[in-house]
Amino acid sequence: MLSDPVTAIKGIGEKFAEDLATLNIFNVEDLLSYFPYRYDVFEIKPLSELIHDDKVTIEGRVVHEPSLAFYGKKKSRLSFTVEVENIAVKAVMFNRAFAKKQINAGDIITLTGKWDLNRLQITVSKYKLGPAESQAEIQPMYSVKGDISNFKLKKVMQNAIRDYADEIIEFLPDRYLRAYKIPERRKALITMHFPANRIDLKHARRRFTYEEFLLFQLKMQLLRKIKREATVGNAQVFDQEKIKEFIGLFPFPLTKAQEKSLNQILSDMKSPYRMNRLLQGDVGSGKTAVASICLYASITAGKQGALMVPTEILAEQHYQSLTETFGDKANIVLLTGSVKGKKRKEMVSAIENHEVDIVIGTHALIQDDVFFNDLGFVIVDEQHRFGVEQRRTLRDKGLKPDVLFMTATPIPRTLAITAFGDMDVSVIDEMPMGRKEIETYWTKENTFERVLHFIEKQIALGEQAYVICPLIEESDKLDIQNAVDLFDQLQEYYPSDVNIGLMHGRLHADDKENVMKQFAGNEIQILVSTTVVEVGVNVPNATIMVIYDAERFGLSQLHQLRGRVGRGDMQSYCILIADPKSEAGRERMRIMTETSNGFELSEQDLKLRGPGDFFGRKQSGVPEFKVADMIHDYRALETARKDAQEIIETNLLEQDAAFYQLQKKLENDSVLTDKLD
Ligand code: ADP
Ligand code: MG
């Protein structure tokens, strides 16, 4: 059986089994699913097509006995001449004296190694007596460690396939194999280990790519279905007329994308299922406007709403703008860590009595002593800072509100549909009309004077600037511009009527707030800061964003920082000061100057960095696929997603006999039970 321990395979003893266990291979099935991580292709080409310094394979006849020379300590050099296409080619082989006996004049031999075009010489890394088996030999390369060699692994793989291949069964319904012209499982699996040619290999990989994506999507969507059904009972009945009226009070019409997202959210809130939705949109795309309409909708349904943000500064900004938007339509309070004592007690009791409609704050607002009377709707701003723990807190209090996560970090579609497969996603991918595009420039440090001069000119027009640098303390290891130094430098450079502020993570919360307030009120014209201003700060009068050592930031972070300007009607500028040493770094700077669309940019970022790095290694449930590649195989991912959706929606797993094996496979994988916390 495929579940037999690997020791059941001929050639695998206890010691080998222990080594295999370090690769997470325990039973026969694990071994068979351990695919090569790459394939070396040895293709015989005419001499005239061989490229200098390339790894090549040639086939020829040995002209005369190899001669062997020893040098240094135990080093040897074996050389001989081979006739290839009537041309004499010299072959050299290092430290393989034993081969002298095997290679004889007149033999046909196949050699692989590095090609020296000038000397017509090959430095052999691999040789085989006799002619090449085919014009292109494909050699599987497994990721191995310890005592396991590629050779040994291939050997036991061969045995495993010989003895167990019959037990490999197909679990994909025939209709998909036919529709996508993909090989059945057993054949594809054998090909993955021992490909006969490139075309077979390509199709085998296509099969496993689809299989991985389909299983993944099915698991995610089943999970979502289970979660939904577990949360029945919070349908909100709101007043459509009042909502329309409320929307009419905005001084602008909603964009198409805002309208679409709004309708998706409202229809979730109306449904009996608990909403679990991500609202994505670039900075300034109008997410907050949509969110406030939803908050209002919830109020007309007689519910309370909450808005949770990562920092107190942000909470305060939201509080100001929402009290303005709502006027006397809602009683809004700001509940942060700095609300203490009697004031806090009063606020908490007002929330409990439903005298309060909307609570805005940091995580403090779901703390132990805060009880809502009837919480219907929660917005979490910047989803990646809100974890499982907070969700649990809400649930432990018996609250089942609809939850909307908002993020201005545009997540590439590719990642969104995998990483957030158990969440619904709305996207605002359109900017309100009349927004001026931020002009972005990339310069080297030697133009800093000019940059400073430019800032001075804009300040004279009444505008403001941010100057961002990566770290706050001098490090002798890294040559990093330091915020404090820069602050001193700027104070020296500018006349005393230009006020400069300093902001970094080590400041006290009070000081931070003070500096931010002064900047928001234009008492400070230039804010020198580390990246603490990254999230959500809104000062429309700031039009210049200078980012020092910009190569130290990722594209998404640069884009976030750039989003701090361009928030008013004035033309804004982003100046990247960077001298990247790597090509990837230069590429990032170029992309920044050319692309202002956050989604486009995030796709590029993903390509440059790969999915693991995109979210940061530890975070997120970005899945690891064995064969599939989320970026490269994007189309297959889409296809698998659609198929999974159809399978779940029409309940094919239970109703169609053709899906029986697939159903069993999913049950065996039992991922569903693990994931429900
Ligand atoms: P986000 O939360 O996505 O950063 P906001 O909702 O704060 O964006 O909107 C940014 C600015 O654009 C605000 O000043 C807001 O009043 C304005 N705004 C929002 N939606 C529109 C629209 N449809 N047309 C014009 N301006 C809009
Ligand atoms: Mg609902």
UniProtKB/TrEMBL annotation:
Instruction: Output the InterPro entries linked to this UniProt entry.
Output: ATP-dep_DNA_helicase_RecG, DEAD/DEAH_box_helicase_dom, Helicase_ATP-bd, Helicase_C-like, NA-bd_OB-fold, P-loop_NTPase, RecG/Mfd, RecG_dom3_C
Query: Its Gene Ontology biological processes?
Result: DNA recombination; DNA repair
PANTHER family with a match to the protein in the record: ATP-DEPENDENT DNA HELICASE HOMOLOG RECG, CHLOROPLASTIC
| Family, similarity comment | Belongs to the helicase family. RecG subfamily.
Protein name as annotated = ATP-dependent DNA helicase RecG
**Occurrences of domain Helicase C-terminal (ranges):** 447-607
Specify the species.
Answer: Virgibacillus profundi
Reactions catalysed, semicolon-separated, are:
Couples ATP hydrolysis with the unwinding of duplex DNA by translocating in the 3'-5' direction; ATP + H2O = ADP + phosphate + H(+)
- The EC number(s) given in the record are 5.6.2.4
What keywords is this UniProt entry annotated with?
ATP-binding, DNA damage, DNA recombination, DNA repair, DNA-binding, Helicase, Hydrolase, Isomerase, Nucleotide-binding
